[in-house]
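Annotated sample (chain length 397).
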Amino acid sequence: MSAQTPQRELPSDWRMARMLGPVLAASALGLVPYTIFSTYLVPIAADAQADVAVVGGLRGLGGLASLTAGALLAPLIDRVPRPVAAAGGLLVLALASGVGALGGVAALTVFCLLVGAGLAITQPVLGAAAADRFDDDAAAGRAATLVTATQSLTAMLAAPVVALPALLWGWRGDFVMVAVLSVLLAAVIVRGRGGREVERPERVGYLASLRALATVPGLTPLLLVALLRSTAFMGYLAYLAAYYDQVFGIGAGPFALVWTLSGTAFFLGNLAGGKLAAADRLRVSPRVLMPLSLTVGAVAVVVLLTVPVLWVALLLTAVLSVAHAIAAACLITLLVRRAGAQRGAVLSVTSAAMSVGTFLGASLGGLGLAVAGYPGMAVALGVATVGAAVAGTRVRA
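Output written by the structure step:
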């Protein structure tokens, strides 16, 4: 019997964060342009002399651009050195923010398209770059989940972060700030401080590269998990403010506290889920923990939308965020561990699947709401979550 290789202790989260500083900063910055757009939608629409609904609807173009760019670039993304690809994505975000600062419907249309395309590049590349910094699979998976945790933390805190500077220079100044920071971070990362180079996949044709993705173990059920989990969770988030307003009379101001509760729970769940998924000694492996957490999420969303009791709703809002955050961390960990040198491509395809899920979630939730009110939405989103859990059970060791 051969001797087992001793397990190496994972670096602490703080040490990992220090090692991945530019990568985490770029990941955090990537979500800021859309946050500015959402936070200042009303004044942006007023300055553009357009209806709020029209301007707000432009963000859907960003999702379409993200889906298209992610799907088309996936077979090529691992051929480019990580720092170069990440810097390229940041420069696209810088250009988008500069155009967005011009205002006007045409400029905002270009802004949404460029941000979507830029995120389709930066998000998978940064996750892969973080994983590449570590030889050990457990540490690599943990590093990738730190990137997603940083993104969720940014989503929670970015509103006050962009609101305070805007008191000095307005929403246009915020866009200029993002453009400048994006260029600076691109310069830092392209010098090699944001990632370590790993062996690149063999240069073959585009279609051959696409077929090579099919060789990643368990990729199909994992992509199905990504699609259905995003459908369920993003559909829920799309109508959360309306639910609290119509059922409990909680308007936009007080609802910010509910949003903070949800965001904080997701951040903590993602952080803890990544740590649990990376612990090789954990008896419940990521491929078991993922469907378990999704099952909890299915129960939580059904009870939340059918039991009109405020304290129950608040409790289940937090539980639902934690459940989905743990599932998301397990998903990223499994993808990073199985993808090898194709991490960038795999994460890019996963991001595209999640973009589709975002669109499906709003449509599915709206359909359930139209047919049978919030109980109908609960059933629709609960079924999607159960579907994600079932797909998770199809992931083999």
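Annotation: The CA atoms of residues 36 and 229 lie 26 Å apart.
Annotation: The radius of gyration is 21 Å.
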